[in-house]
Amino acid sequence: MPPLRRSSSNFSIKSKFSSHGQSDNWHRQVSFEAGDQHPVGLGYVPNASFPWAALRRITDSYLIKKRGKNTVEDRDACLALLIKNHTAKDIAIAACGHAMSPKSVRDLLAGDLNIKLGDSYGLPSYLQAIIAANHVNEGAVSALEARRTIELMASNSTVRDLQALLQILINGVPANFLIHPHIQTLVGLACVKFSTQLEELRGQHQWRRAQIATEWLGNFVQRSVESLPENLDATKLLYENFPHWRAWANWSPDLTRVGRWELFSPGQRQTLSNALVLEGPDFVYDRHGTLREAVEAKGFIPSLTSHSVGSLVFEVGRGMAHDVPNMVHRLLNLVDAAVVMSDNDDTAILAYFCISQSVTNKRLDCLECLSHLGDPSISALVSQAYRARKETWGTQMAAVMRLLPILGVERCNSLRIAIGHDIASFVRGTLEELQKRLLSQLRSGQPSSDTETRLQACGDGLRNTPWLWPSLDDALVDLFKDWPSPEDVVCLQSIRDFAKTSSAGNMLDVVKKVDDYLVNCLVKRGTINTSTRILVRALIKLWIQALDSDRRLLALSVVQGRVITTNFRCRCLDQLPLLPDGFVHSLRNIIQNHDEAPEPACVDLTTLLTTTELSVVTCWRPVLNRMLKNRGEKLIDYALSNLKAKEWLQFLLDLRQIFGEEVNSDATTSAPILKPQLHRWANNLDGYLPVISQLEEDARCGPTVQCILAGGDGLHGLLEDTLERVLLLMLNVEAHSKPVMMAIISLLKRDGSNALDIADALSSLGSATEEGLDACLHVIDFVQNKTREVAEVVLTGWLQAPSLTVLDQKALESVAEVLGIRPSSKQDWSEAGLEVVTNYLDAEYADLFAEAQRLEEMRFLLKSLDPQGTSQLLASVGIEDSSAVDDALASLPPALISVVEKVDDLRVEMLFPLTHLTQPQRLRFGLGMAQSLYLHFVVADDPAFCLHLDSEMKGKRRAGHATSIHDPWQVIPGGEGPDLPICQGHTSPAKYHLSRAISRHLTDGFKSLEAVHVLVTAVLQDLDKGCITCGRDHGVKVKGPTTCSNAVCRNAFLSASLEIHLCQIRQDPAAVDCLLSMVYSAASTGNMQLLPNCPFNNTATVLQILNLLPSMSSLQNSDGMAEVIRGYNPQVEQLLIWVCTACRGFLSSAQGNLRIPSFPAGSHQFLLSNHSPEHEAAFSRHISGWIGSAQTRVLFHGTSLDRLFAITCQGLQVMSHTPLQANGAASGAGVYCATEPSTSWSYCGAQGVGNWPQSQFSNFRVLLGLENAGPGVGGGGVHVVRDATTLAVRYLFMMPASIGAVPVAAHITPAMSSVYASLRSGAL
Question: What angle, 0 to 180 degrees and rounded to 10, lies between the N-to-C axes of helices 324-341 and 291-298?
């Protein structure tokens, strides 16, 4: 029994006697008195030393001390509360139970003190409490109940829980006993545990261990359970929790057998499980001693042939069902024998024969034979032969092959009878399968060596097993008579692999022969012809004798070749091992290459055979003869085309040496190359070999040499005589006539059809003069490289040449005869012929002109490098040199010819259109209405130029005419840039800009007119892109002529002609008037800060000079505006230049679409196209970095006229908290702007007294239209712009001071936004 543990419980009863002080004292006294003792001690007997009386006294004393009059119910409740609150319930009951009513004690045990069913932790303490209650209050717990409780305590600590618990139930445990539900629960749990243990042993077929574990159960049933009624609790509990307890109780196995089976390994038991189960319990009927007995008792239906015994199936003949028990007995004996043999193969084959498939007498016979033989090796082979059917073929086949000779031994007769049919069926099926597989692999090109090897090995085994032949097909037995040896199969596989991987090329015929031979030997006889069989056998013999690759490759080539018969090939194979290695190597290469290059192979074999002994020649001569016949005339053509004359003659000589008299016979069956006539002619050519060799060196004479070497009868039977005549003429040829004679003889045709004409021509050439020979060469050249018509014209011309002799003319006619042409007359020429000749002459003329052009380009290049030297060189050879202008014009591309005009030998004039310029651009650059620009250019080492507008020529002679007088600017290397005016006409910023650009280009010297034209065109395309002085890119497009930030450029521009600066007076006098009014108003304040970069020290001087000026409209139309201004005062010129250039932007009157509608009558509008390049660049950066719905916004700013000049020159500045602050800065420092013009209008100061007397503007107020590219601060339509670079002044609206209202933003903002967008896009 586990050690007793005291635990507290939760109680629901409360009493009025629950005095904490007294009860605590009681608990301490009781615990102290009991110590660690309990009612039941060791050995599960009453504890004699337990302090029963002392505990009672403690309780009695406790009750006496309680005040008041207590009833029985009150006392029971009080003591029950003490018991429930005490840790050791058995001790508490021993102390209080005597003073309580029996019912109160039993209710407490059945209720609050009871434990959960199956609680093994609380059960010992609860059982002690029951026993204590019996001792102090027998009315609550009887003595019998206490005895059963002690038995339960003892059974719960034994090993055999179930047996002891069942005995308690059999002894009697009434339902009203407190332990009744607990013992039933314990019996159920013990049944499940015991059943699980037995099922594990059953699954492992550990029958001996299971028998030992259940032995008591059978005795117990016979002794106790069967003598009691069926409704006994023990029986019910067994059936509920241990369903097969009867089977285990009735089980009576053969102990000797199951003990022997213990020697099986777990794997063997698992293998034989279906047989081992027969000696196990009867789980079918639960009443027989074993499953085997149950099956036998059931009996078998005689009409059936298949009977199930457990998981086994026994097959017998019809009506032989009574034999099944005997088969079961035999099977179990075999299982016993398998234990004795103690080998895995015995159990495996037993399982294969009788477990994995149905059990038959035949299979039992086989197993009994194996058991009788007692030879583990034979059992292993039989096992492998049968079990390996589902494994690898090799394992099974190897076992069968080893088993076949064993089955032929006399002592194995019974085994052979038992399994012979199966073995024969397997062998037959295996052979058929291998044969089918081999055929399939050979057809599909898959590897077949493994199948061939297995098939040969299988057949080899069957050849030595004649007892099996009656079971095989006759065709298969017939194969065994000529079955290939393993060495032959390996040799054939080696031949095939060598052929497939050979570098000799296509050896598919060899592969096919080997495959066919293997099929004939291993699958079906008669599938190949006799020649193939003989050839393959000869190849096998050679393969065994010759191990070197050369002989093997040569052997494959001999077998592969089709040019000789099988007998010849076999003879060659037999001789190969005896031939020298060098000869074999050469022969192999020749035969190997024959299929791809048969003609070279014939030549090479001929040469090779002349180097060996007669016996070898005799063997291989038929091979060569067959090769020569097969190639026929193609061999002759090849030899003539590829062999030199000396090689050809040697080749024929070698053939005569090999074939001897066969060459001299006229047999029609001989190869063409062996014809006697060919060899006789070859003998005649020996004396002409030097001539023929010379002809070979001439690439034109290929057909000629072939014709000479081939000889023959020709068309008229006199070809060889004619050829010999030709060779004699060439043998004695003179040096001066050799070129033309070589040209003529090269025309000899391959068939010799024109040999007679060639001979006549060569004969006549020998009498011609050198001029006649040259004429012949020209005619030959024209025939070969020109058309026939042209050649005939040339021939006719030469024949009419008076310098030619009669013999020359005869030679020409002979050559013409060879060439197939004749002299022509006008009557002979057709229209087509005339056209051909005309086209030829035209082409010749074109070539002459092209050559002249090439020479002219060369002259021009030389002059560009050394003009004087080139002129002297031309003069020395009598060629007139051209002028510099002509050279320059000659280099012009075609596209510029129409825009460049020569004036004289020194000058040209270029025309440039100005139609692409917009009206604002014309205004800004002083071009007026001009549509074209003329560049007058002097071509010289130091070039000069001047510029003119077409509008300047009205009523005058056009600039550039020879009679016009020009004073161009001459460009000197290292000199200064041009300063206007240059030559005639008005000056302008555009002319200044272009002149500076052209001068910079020409500083390094004149290159070409094209380069000048490209430069001027580029500048005109982007007039407002760069600095007007140095041309440096501003980085942003400005809308007017201005300089970069470089002070050098600024000073250079200020020192330019007055006409340049005052050009705007002619173009837009109102804008200049506005500027002067701004200056006058600013000077009237006396504040020089409002006059940036002013050249004068005080405002009084400025006012004084301004008062001297006339109105701008009077100056606009004056012819000599510069002279008029200089006539006033030198300071007047200085002032005007400063006023017109101080603003690096451009101010102009707003005209046309640039004028904003809705402004009141009498208003003036001016557009400030741009500020300085630096300000515009900063403004552009703000546009690209500003994220908004539009790129910029329209704002307005009010100011006074005196501040306007500084704003125009410098842009709006943040003047908050400076002396120049005009109004407050309520929202902080910044430029204050508004979205509504009316808001800014209130800040527009009146013009006041600062009004220039000559101005057309009087009593005006100024409103500025702004473009904003950044955020502003403020509200209510007011923007405080912190960064002034985000603002650009675009419009100056000058309105009469007396107007009552200004336009609303909604009426003017869209038009202003459109103008701003056009300025940004470059459209203006």
Answer: 160
Kindly state the tokens that stand for 974.
């290292």
Identify the pLDDT of residue 392: 60
Q: Give the model's pLDDT for residue 159.
A: 42
CA distance 1029 to 979: 10
Backbone angles phi, psi at 960, to 5 degrees: 110, -20
Rg (CA), the chain: 68
Q: What pLDDT does 9 receive?
A: 37
Longest dimension (CA), the chain: 186
Q: What is the C-alpha to C-alpha distance for residues 692 and 228, in angstroms, rounded to an integer?
A: 138
Distance CA 1207, CA 1229 (A): 18
Q: Which two tokens stand for residue 578?
A: 């005896």
- Per-residue burial over 728-742, b if 16 or more Cβ lie within 10 Å, else e, is ebbeebeeebeebbb
Angle between helices 361-373 and 324-341 (to 10 degrees): 30
Structure tokens, 1061: 């600066």
Q: Cα(1139)–Cα(1036) distance, rounded to whole angstroms?
A: 24
User: What's the CA gap between 168 and 156, in Å, rounded?
Assistant: 11
Structure tokens at 745: 């003889």
- Asked if residues 359 and 315 have their Cβ atoms less than 8 Å apart, the reply is yes
911: which strand partners? Answer: 934
3-state DSSP call for residue 217?
helix
Q: What per-residue confidence (pLDDT) applies to 8? A: 38
Cα–Cα distance between 1180 and 960 in angstroms, integer? 44
Q: How many other CB atoms sit within 10 Å of the CB of residue 894?
A: 6
What is the number of other CB atoms lying within 10 angstroms of the CB of residue 421? 12
Between CA 741 and CA 1042 the distance in angstroms is: 85
Can you tell me the distance from the alpha carbon of 2 to that of 124, in angstroms, rounded to the nearest whole number? Answer: 7
Segments of the chain scoring below 50 in pLDDT? 1-19, 69, 158-159, 230-231, 954-963, 1189
For 1, 126, 940, 1108, the CA distances from 31, given in Å and listed in that order, are: 22, 17, 140, 137
- For residue 309, CA distances in Å to 278, 579, 726 come to 8, 79, 114
Which DSSP state fits 808?
H
Whole-number pLDDT of residue 828: 64
pLDDT at 1: 43
| Confidence at residue 955, expressed as pLDDT on a 0 to 100 scale | 41
Separation between Cα atoms, residue 586 and residue 150, nearest integer Å: 114
Work out the angle at residue 649's Cα, subtended by the Cα atoms of residues 645 and 655, and round it to the nearest 5 degrees.
Answer: 145
Q: Angle at which helices 1069-1084 and 1130-1142 pack, to 10 degrees?
A: 100
Q: Are 219 and 269 in contact (CB under 8 A)?
A: no
For every residue of 1120-1188, DSSP letters joined together read THHHHHHHH-HHHHHHHHHHHHH-SSEEEE--GGGSPTTPPTT-EEEEEEE--HHHHHHHHHHHHH--S
pLDDT tens profile 556-571: 877 876 656 778 788 8
Calpha distance 1071→1040 (Å, rounded): 14
Pairing of strands 1278-1281, 1231-1234: antiparallel
Q: Which two tokens stand for residue 55?
A: 């505990």
Angle at 213 between CA 210 and CA 218, to 5 degrees: 100
- Model pLDDT, residue 1288: 92
631's CB contacts (< 8 A; 6+ apart) are 598, 599, 602, 638, 671
Looking at residue 1238, its amino acid is: S
Residue that the structure tokens 């053509």 belong to: 637
CA separation for the pair 167, 165 (Å, rounded): 5
Who's near 581: CB < 8 A, 6+ residues apart?
548, 550
Whose structure tokens read 């394992």? 395
> 317 is written with which tokens?
């003949």
pLDDT (tens digit, 9 = 90+) per residue, 1199-1217?
Answer: 988 899 999 998 998 888 8
Provide the β-strand partners of residue 346: none
Look at the chain and count its residues: 1324
